[in-house]
Design goal:
mainly alpha, four-stranded mixed beta sheet, two-stranded antiparallel sheet, 76% helix, globular
């Protein structure tokens, strides 16, 4: 995907108009000094390693611990898969860009990177909606919870989230792939996002913009509306509880999810809905860095630090590993 020098292809049908078609983009990254780039590289490397280890730990605990075989933790393991996919799509190229003060990426590679980025973000959007519904049923209709959130239904909901995310993103990428990119091939970002791609297109982007506008309603605003309605009902139900202990216990079961939802939508809406200018470009990059790199690290920390079941399962796993290592040592 990355190369050392730009390659410009000249198509015969474009030569009549004295236009050249770009086959590569140059990602500027953060345009830092070399010392700052090395520091940022080391920091992001630590964050990335922590993200992979933390989310793999969540997946392992949910898969092996019988105490965590519940809908909430199943959805949490799916969220961890998404949190591994997203930074893995972005961070390796970012490392190359940081160490080389920019880097080239092919047009096809750029579209592929955008595809997995958008698909993982879309999946998280749908999954957080399903998780809010799960918390709504658990708190507002606890007697029906086991009959509504069955294991088969949870698997089906997860599959639907994955299919919706990848299919919607595929339509975007098919429309982007037929665009012609000519003129400047510079992208002032550290990964291939939708807006920079459209800005570099010299053919009509109406189809892509129309699809984005149409799909934003079912893909973003409907899930956000469902989440808001779910938590309004959850808060009303909690406030009706007479016991303070019951209120605290009910709120603790959904507080972690509410924090994750707030961080996700705040950064996402800040980057894509607020007006942009040159003075806000660097701030936009920082927000993009937050939800592509930092948030996947924060999610397992939020759920693990605020969850007694995960702490208990982790302690059991540590004890089993310690006993196993002792048995191996004594057997020798």
């Amino acid at each position: 995907m990355l190369g050392e020098a730009p390659v410009v292809l000249h198509w015969p049908q474009q030569q009549e108009n004295n236009l050249s078609v770009n086959s590569e983009f140059f990602l500027l990254g953060f345009k830092n000094r070399q010392s700052s780039s090395i520091f940022l590289f080391c920091l992001l490397l630590v964050i990335y390693c922590g993200t992979i280890c933390g989310n793999l730990l969540i997946i392992t605990l949910v898969s092996t611990s019988k105490n965590l075989h519940t809908p909430m933790y199943f959805f949490l393991s799916q969220l961890s898969i998404s949190d591994i996919l997203l930074p893995t799509d972005i961070v390796p190229n970012m490392f190359y860009i940081l160490l080389n003060n920019g880097g080239f990426i092919t047009v096809n590679g750029c579209i592929i990177q955008f595809y997995f980025f958008c698909a993982s973000e879309g999946f998280e959007c749908f999954l957080l909606t399903v998780m809010s519904y799960d918390r709504y049923v658990a708190i507002c209709n606890p007697l029906r919870y086991t009959s509504v959130m069955t294991s088969d239904r949870c698997v089906i909901l997860a599959i639907i989230c994955w299919l919706l995310a990848f299919s919607i993103t595929l339509m975007y990428c098919i429309a982007i792939s037929v665009l012609t990119f000519c003129g400047t091939n510079i992208i002032d970002h550290f990964f291939c996002d939708l807006v920079p791609l459209l800005e570099n297109a010299c053919s009509s982007t109406y189809t892509v913009e129309f699809e984005v506008f149409i799909m934003c309603f079912p893909g973003l605003f409907i899930p956000l509306t469902i989440i808001i309605i779910s938590y309004i009902n959850i808060i009303v139900t909690i406030l009706r509880l007479q016991s303070i202990i019951s209120r605290q216990k009910a709120f603790s079961t959904c507080s972690s999810h509410l924090i994750v939802v707030s961080i996700f939508y705040f950064t996402l809406l800040s980057v894509y809905l607020f007006p942009k200018g040159e003075e806000t470009l660097n701030f936009s990059k920082l927000l993009s860095l937050l939800y592509t790199v930092v948030t996947p690290l924060i999610n397992p920390i939020i759920y693990s630090l605020r969850n007694k079941d995960i702490k208990k399962s982790l302690q059991e796993m540590i004890n089993k590993c310690a006993k196993l290592s002792n048995n191996v040592i004594f057997s020798r």
